[in-house]
Amino acid sequence: MERKAFGEMAPGTELGPFRVTVSAAANERYWRAAGVDHPALAAGALYPPIAANLTVLCFGRVCPDAMIQTRQHLRCHRKVAAGVELVTTGKVSRRYEKRGRTYVDVETMVATADRPDEAVWSSEVSFTPAATVGFAS
């Protein structure tokens, strides 16, 4: 996979596939860290906000620059159990300027390896380079 600087991230830039299996123990840590005690955890279901991390990781495999995630929209399509292989794919859908900063919008889909055309989660995220954000001294 070709790595690109943020300045090279144009609409249509393909992301993924990024493959990962979240173990039951890791999944439980996600649920517990969020302070959630839900029947879905006891049933072994993956924690849906994992999709946000998978989107960031998928984008970061192509663009290694330090980023700030400024917006996230996550859709849950179906439940899956921990321990299945997840495949995240996506693309840069838009590039624009706002308040003197450059942003890219990224759309991803997380599916299982055995059902690659059926989304578990879909995600839309906006990123801007961390270097563009000024900090008061």
Notes on the protein architecture:
The chain is 20% helix and 43% strand. With 137 residues, it is an alpha+beta fold. The protein is globular. A hairpin with a 2-residue loop joins strand 3 and strand 4. The protein has a five-stranded antiparallel beta sheet.
Quick synopsis:
The protein is of the alpha+beta class and 137 residues long. 20% of the residues lie in helices and 43% in strands.
Provide the fold topology.
Elements: E1 14-21, H1 24-33, H2 39-42, H3 50-62, E2 67-76, E3 85-98, E4 101-112, E5 115-129
Antiparallel strand pairs: 1-3, 2-5, 3-4, 4-5
**Helix and strand composition category:** alpha+beta
Choose one word for the global shape: globular
Q: For the record, give the distance between the C-alpha atoms at the N and C termini, rounded to a whole number.
A: 38 Å
Q: Secondary-structure element order, as H and E? A: EHHHEEEE
Report strand order across the widest sheet: 1-3-4-5-2
Low-confidence stretches: none
Helical region count? 3
- Percent of residues in β-strands: 35-45%
Rg of Cα set: 16 Å
Report on the biggest sheet: 5 strands, antiparallel
Q: How much helicity do the residues have?
A: 10-25%
What is the average per-residue confidence, as pLDDT, rounded to a whole number?
90
Number of strands: 5
